[in-house]
Amino acid sequence: MREALLWRMHDLGQQTLLLAKHGHILGARILLRSCIETLGVLIYLNQKTQSVLSSTLSFFEFDEITKQLLMGSKNGATSLAAVNILTVLGQAEKVHPGLASMHQHLSESAHPNYDGVLFGYSSTDPDKHETHFVNNWVEFFGMEQEPGSAFVFAVFEHEYNVVWPQHMTQLEKWLRANDAALGAQRVEP
Question: Is the pTM of this model over 0.85?
Answer without folding.
Answer: yes
